[in-house]
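$ ./design --mode recover --in tokens.txt
reading tokens...
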């Protein structure tokens, strides 16, 4: 079945405005087509995760791992070849080790790839 193109113009969101101004937190750079995080776990339909800036698909619900609403964290097991990991390993304040993940098409930061985590985060991966 072929996908239909939509000519419908969507309302500019707060995230869109932040992207245009160049001051967007990387936690908000992945679109789930406006579906709230709390509803994602309950849905049975396939979902794709897209870069908000250029709409490149960076992961999908087949890779779904879960959500932690307290941490505002959505976890997937894999990313598409259109997302890329940084070459540099970083550490956060909790001493978790990670690499930044960005959209391979436009370069916008879309998340983190965790290499090592504190025990309280181990259940998420």
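writing sequence...
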């Amino acid at each position: 079945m072929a996908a239909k193109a939509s000519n419908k113009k969507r309302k500019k969101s707060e995230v869109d405005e932040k992207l245009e101004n160049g001051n967007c937190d990387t936690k908000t750079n992945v679109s789930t087509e406006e579906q709230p995080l709390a509803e994602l776990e309950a849905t049975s339909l396939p979902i794709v995760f897209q870069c908000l800036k250029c709409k490149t698909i960076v992961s999908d619900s087949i890779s779904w791992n879960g959500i932690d609403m307290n941490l505002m964290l959505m976890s997937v097991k894999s990313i598409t070849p259109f997302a890329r990991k940084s070459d540099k390993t970083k550490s956060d304040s909790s001493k978790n080790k990670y690499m930044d993940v960005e959209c391979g098409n436009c370069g916008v930061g879309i998340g983190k790839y965790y290499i090592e985590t504190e025990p309280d985060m181990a259940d998420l991966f």
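exit 0
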